[in-house]
Amino acid sequence: MECLQNWPEPIIHVQSIADSGAATVPDRYIKPISDRPEIGKSTTVLDQQSIPVINLAAFSETGDIDHEHACNATLMQEISVACRDWGFFQVVNHGVSPELMKRTRETWRAFFHLPMEQKHKYVNTPKTYEGYGSRLGVEQGAILDWGDYYFLNFLPWSLKNQDKWPCLPETLRETVEEYGREVVELCEKVIKVVSRSLGLEGDYVKRVFGGEGVGVSMRANYYPRCPQPELTLGLSAHSDPGGITVLLADDRVQGLQVRKDGAWVTVQPLSDAFIVNIGDQIQVVSNAIYKSVEHRVMVNSEEERVSVAIFYNPRGDVLIGPAQELVSPARAVCCMPMTYNEHRLDIRKRGPRGKAQVDTLKSSSTPPNLY
């Protein structure tokens, strides 16, 4: 993948601006009117049952999603409807310890509360994005988001750089390692159910993503209090470029919004649940039967917000195209094959821009038989 070596301007961490007591949002963070959140206006808000909720207990009961069992059939149908209608769902009875979930979120909160000189030891660059950062994209003069983050690679092992894992708080490395292992197991459960819900073999998606060479990364997000939340966003509208995302949301502060039928819908996380969304690569593999969905993050003037996302992605150099089983005279191929490295380069260059990067995949040509 083309290397992006340096940021175009000096990095100013949003937390520094918030901690300075600034009464206004700097111009660099003010979004165009069309992109601003409708805070205080009449908006669609989900109740807890509106966003699909998937109970993964059935997966644990049968032990094998390929087994012909009524629980499996129901689970696959629920996943299929959620992926078709929303692209987002929450999972409960997922097997990850609620105590570990809480500990992970609060450990990252403690990191972001460290003195700035401690965090600066891990400042990132656009070459890999690993470490402590405050922007996506390298376009000079771009309008920025009101948020800081910490990005880490888990898999493959060749990309895991322990030098980028913070030493403080003292429990961070151990906690993040344990959490990562458990959530990767959850990702593979979800990927298997997604495969089967498409009528594919259970290991299909993992296999075409590169098998044991799949990529897994973490992004811990910190959205400081904002003096004018109606003018900016914590994270601009985008769809995730990879496979699936498993999000541990803040248990105290809402902020995630999903685009549904042209409107922005605020997600209300369930206690001890994960929010899961499908990314562009699942849209590609499913031949657009399932579609990645735009989402964004609001900020507020009263509370900071912390969330932790795990991304389960294809190996960077593997061509990803529509599954041949899902191509038919009635359903032409949705796009040409492309590697994940090529696909995500657009968002790494220009930052989050809706689903603009997905448009680059569209083609009327027939892809080769990859599998």
UniProtKB/TrEMBL annotation:
Residues 214-314 form the Fe2OG dioxygenase domain. Residues 351-371 are annotated as: Disordered. Residues 360-371 have a biased composition (Polar residues). One of its GO terms (molecular function) is metal ion binding. It holds the Pfam family 2OG-FeII_Oxy. Keywords: Iron, Metal-binding, Oxidoreductase. The keyword Iron applies. The keyword Oxidoreductase applies. Belongs to the iron/ascorbate-dependent oxidoreductase family. This is Fe2OG dioxygenase domain-containing protein. It comes from Dioscorea zingiberensis.
